Amino acid sequence: MSSPRIGVVTGAGRGMGLACAQRMAPTVDTIVLVDRDESNLGAVGSELEQHAKVIPMAADVSDPVAMAALAAHVATGSLRAVAHAAGVSPTMASWRDVVRVDLVGTACIIDALSPLVTTGTAAVCFSSMSALLLGLGGVDPAVEAALDDPLSPTFLDDLREAAGPSIEDSGLAYAWAKRGVQRLVRRVAIEWGPRGGRICSISPGIIDTPQGRQESAAQPAMAMMLERTPLGREGTADELAAVVAFLLSDEASFLTGTDVLVDGGVCAALQQP
Ligand SMILES: NC(=O)c1ccc[n+]([C@@H]2O[C@H](COP(=O)([O-])OP(=O)(O)OC[C@H]3O[C@@H](n4cnc5c(N)ncnc54)[C@H](O)[C@@H]3O)[C@@H](O)[C@H]2O)c1
Fold first, then answer.
1. Thinking of the domain 5-263, which architecture would CATH place it in?
2. Collapsing DSSP states into helix, strand and coil, what is residue 52?
3. Which pLDDT score is estimated for 225?
4. What is the atom index within ligand 1 of the atom nearest the CA of 102?
5. % of the chain with per-residue pLDDT over 70
6. What digits encode the pLDDT tens for the residues 24-56?
7. Residue 238 phi, psi dihedral angles, 5° rounding
8. What pLDDT, in 10s, does the model give residues 231-241?
9. b or e along 33-63 (b: 16 or more beta carbons within 10 Å of the residue's beta carbon)?
10. What is the CA radius of gyration of the chain?
11. How far is the CA of 211 from the centre of ligand 1 (A)?
12. Which residues line ligand 1 (CB under 6 A)?
């Protein structure tokens, strides 16, 4: 008998992680649902049980011990798919916690799962269009270099030194962290490719989720961006999950090491002179 196909979704309790879990469950034998807030995991698990064996896991993705426990669950089968949507936004945390969750957390889970990558493994990590907008003004190579060592014990201090005090703005820290996610995905794709594994990032624009709504309520710039969005509306969690499902499917078998921008066209509009 072949080993069970295992899928992992982080941030699975709500928003885009939940939408990814709903699409992934019918494609795997076992699905591990990770979220640091366990309040929604029970209901999500009950919903998905008709499709796959569900393992709910209350864990912080930036905790290496918890990610080792996740890897132990996954090692009971064959790692098929990872949708890593767990993340926090600028209004949710200090700059250090934004970078710790969004970039260090991504490095932690990918590092833990990396030894289990095999032919047919595919992963998608959530970045953001803010990483692309940050790049429009030109980025300091010293900060980019500092982003590339997220598992160093001195990472946050090294990043603060390279970026200067501006990174203490959570909004800027978020953009840098998400840029770090895109860079990490490119490095990891090179490592996983010879083993038959793929990894991409996805950069959502303004999406109607609890996080998206919180940012829109707090940041006036979001209304301006929505106004400039060619499709004239926010995206839905399921529209993003549909793209993730494609990236994780065999239909995307030659796609790795790249970022996919899913923003209703707003970055294209903002780049017009
Ligand atoms: N909503 C948007 O407009 C938007 C835009 C660009 C990028 N993103 C990114 O997309 C991803 C999903 O966003 P969303 O809007 O669905 O967010 P959300 O806040 O609605 O849901 C995120 C989920 O992740 C969980 N989570 C947060 N930190 C965690 C941690 N350290 N460990 C485990 N679980 C954790 C939360 O408990 C929550 O259930 C995030 O990485 C976010 O930064 C969102």
1. 3-Layer(aba) Sandwich (3.40)
2. coil
3. 94
4. 41
5. 100
6. 999 999 999 999 999 999 999 999 999 999 999
7. -70, -30
8. 999 999 999 99
9. bbbbeeebbeebbeebeebbbbbbbebbbbe
10. 18
11. 6
12. 10-11, 13-17, 34-37, 60-62, 85-89, 101, 105, 126, 128, 204, 206-207, 209-212
Structure tokens of 123? 């992963």
What long-range pairs does 66-71 form, CB within 8 A, spacing at least 24?
67/108, 67/109, 67/111, 67/112, 67/113, 68/112, 70/8, 70/32, 70/34, 70/109, 70/112, 70/113, 71/112, 71/113, 71/115, 71/116
| Rounded distance from Cα 101 to ligand 1 centre (Å) | 10
Which residue type sits at 190? I
Whether 1 shows a pLDDT value over 70: the answer reads no
* CA count, 13 A, side-chain hemisphere, 197: 26
Is 137's pLDDT higher than 90?
no
Query: Ligand 1 pocket test: which of 9, 16, 129 has the largest number of ligand atoms within 8 Å of its C-beta?
Result: 16
Q: Which residue CA neighbors atom 25 of ligand 1 most closely? A: 11
Query: What is the pLDDT, as a whole number, of residue 175?
Result: 96
Do 34 and 24 meet the contact criterion of CB atoms below 8 Å apart?
no
Looking at the DSSP bridge assignments, the partners of residue 106 are: none
Mean pLDDT score, 148-175: 96
